[in-house]
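chain below, 493 aa
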Amino acid sequence: MSTMALRLARTCGTLALLLGGVASGIAWAQADDFATPPRPAAPRPLRIDAPVEQRLPNGLRVVLAQRRGVQLVTAQLIVLSGSEIDPPERAGVASMTAGLLTKGTRRHSATALARAAESLGGSLDSGAGADRSDVAITVSVPRLDAALALLGEAVQQPTFAQRELDRLRTQTLDDLKVGYSRPGTLATLAAQHLLFGNGAYGRPSGGTPASLPRIRRADLLAMHRLAYRPDNAVLVFAGDLDAASALRLARRHFGTWKRARGAPAALPATTLLAGLPQSSAVIDMPDAGQAAVVVTAPMPPLGRDRAAGAMLNEVLGGGYSSRLNQEIRIQRGLSYSAGSQLDARRAAATLRVVVQTKNPSAAEVVTLVQAELDRLVATPVGEAEFAARKAALIGEFSRGVETTAGLGAAVATLVVAGLPPDELRRRIAALEAVTPADVQRLAAAHLAPARRRIVVAGAAATFGDALRAAAPAAVTVPAAALDLERHDGLAAP
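prediction:
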């Protein structure tokens, strides 16, 4: 190496060391700056036009949530009936009825219908749950007319071919076999059954291994006649569309849909809250590698308290920084996933905590979940914690309605709940108005220990003795004997 090259290499090396030292100092300074979390920024204003609601002469409501500037539209036909009107011994009828809407019509076979939707750049998706059945598609604006023709055909002219019914039944039974091998699935279903028994909300919306074989094509036809009618449905548009075009398209594809005689299907309220006498249960799965803990409590329909309920759930288990995740996952390392969900249905709501953990830790997790619920009941949430969780919830909502599918889903949720669609624009203001006192009041009214239901699914031999201290009244049911159709218990006779 020449003398000049050697000097240059030494100079570059010295410069690299100097720059490295500066960079290291910057990194340490940045680390110091971030030792204290920044304050939440002010919520970004939500710019959503007021949803426009119109109605066809046959009773079909047409709701438009405009999203200008994006040449996409999500169209969703919502029937305001779902699994809650399933016959008592035929859980799954509403789900199978909705599932078969896109599996063949008078004009198209299942394959032809799927190909027609794909040629438009979309897909017809259908399904059913509590209080609703729906079919949806998202396409570009120029293809919306053709897409609505397919959607209207699926809703009004399904054939419910026997071979498609048999295929869907087999697929669903296979899915249940897989699902019933998972502690989380069994614990969640058993907890729901403890709360609502064999009432309208106590039966699994997708059916059970016993109920699905009982379903016949005649049951699907009867469900379709009962629930699928224009005065029991709402057509929701979300996207770059004006009100006049929305009404014109609705009239073209649904204007001849005839209203049936009599009143639409009604929720059998007398059996809605027919809970079981047990308050806690163990589902014994000897070969399970992990256990699932579910703690749930019933809540009333969340009309006036909708925003407070959302904040309660957000503080308890709504995200990574929630109390459950902080205590169970971060502080103690007992789970990769510890959270809660607020299942707000039309006639009732449910707060449900779900935690997956090691079998030996199941009893400890039950105790920790109970303690967090007790804390919500007894003590207002601190201002700093409350502000951070509120900012996270508002941000999540704002991001969720940025797409046409998300905007349509938010409007559909309000429609199904029986709330005015324009509440969407007031959502952030309603969340901002919630106080820690509101959350504590809601928790004290509905989350007291006597109202809770506890289910643990897993290898009972590893946690049964320890669990008796946290849930002394728990009944043990072998997983193979679990019966989600009984009126008086969880175990088959």
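The chain has two domains: 52-265, 270-481. Residues 3-33 form the longest helix (31 residues).
thats it, cya
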